[in-house]
Design brief:
- It contains six helices and 14 strands.
- The chain has 258 residues and is of the alpha+beta class.
- The protein has one domain: Deoxyribonuclease I, Chain A.
- A hairpin with a 2-residue loop joins strand 6 and strand 7.
């Protein structure tokens, strides 16, 4: 099974790149975030023509998440929204069964500034994710998406520059660690490459950050149940952070034996 998670930063803007990716890499399951689609504008027909069925949770110009499944794979039991989240209208969580695996695609609240109301909402969202991961424990499960948390200092190009900022606080990181423990989950990147391996998934558009290697690892694939034992490959597809109208995130891809 080939899995991908990708914050596309507007599916309308990035649809040609998404279709290009699907054709080149043929994932079985693709989790998309920040689709920024109105519900009736989600490109169901275009994705179907490319060989993918979709379920989506669309909230308009902000956020939005989706799960794509390759034609021929069962896609069922979709559920939009995360019990306990503060602002359900922001469309930050969707899950579904794909070929016997419970898959969730999530776009965690950014948090903006430590101590702000939005930061409190981010911590609340992470708490709700912990509760849901606990409920899913023991199942073959994938929780994938833009977590807006860099799990460790190695996942930040300059930890000193981020001191006191969101994405790296003890409150955020401890909740991510609790999620892994509560759900019996593993971070696919760490599981395959080790905790010291550095591989970024996001780079600011400004000041040439991508070409200068100034990024963060905030897009994660968390695996549970029997899935971690079959992990064969985890990596980013850098070419999709280049070229015409790229997202500021690169697709993160994992290959599993099942």
């Amino acid at each position: 099974m080939r899995l991908v998670t990708w914050n596309v930063n507007s599916l309308k803007m990035r649809l040609p790149r998404v279709l290009e990716f699907l054709e080149q890499h043929a994932p079985d399951v693709a989790c998309l975030q920040e689709t920024k689609c109105e519900r009736d504008a989600f490109p169901v027909a275009e994705l179907a023509a490319a060989g993918y069925r979709a379920v989506h949770h669309s909230g308009g110009r902000w956020a939005g998440v989706a799960i794509l499944a390759r034609e021929g794979l069962a896609l069922a039991e979709a559920a939009a929204g995360l019990p306990g989240e503060v602002r359900a209208e922001e469309a930050r969580w969707i899950e579904a069964d794909v070929d016997g695996v419970r898959v969730a695609s999530t776009y965690v609240v950014n948090g903006r500034a430590v101590g702000s109301e939005t930061f409190a909402e981010k911590l609340s969202f992470l708490d709700a994710m912990i509760a849901r991961a606990t409920e899913l424990r023991g199942r073959d499960v994938v929780i994938a998406g833009d977590f807006n948390v860099a799990p460790a200092d190695v996942d930040v190009y300059d930890p000193a520059a981020f001191a006191g900022a969101t994405h790296v606080t003890a409150e955020e990181r401890s909740r991510l660690a609790r999620m892994l423990e509560a759900g019996g989950l593993v971070d696919a990147h760490v599981a395959l490459h080790g905790p010291e391996a550095q591989q970024f998934t996001w780079w600011d558009y400004r000041q040439g950050h991508f070409h200068r290697g100034l990024g963060l690892r905030i897009d994660l694939l968390l695996l549970g149940g029997t899935l971690p034992a079959g992990l064969e490959r985890v990596g980013i597809e850098r070419d999709f952070r280049k070229g015409s109208k790229p997202s500021d995130h690169a697709p993160l891809v994992a290959d599993l034996r099942r």
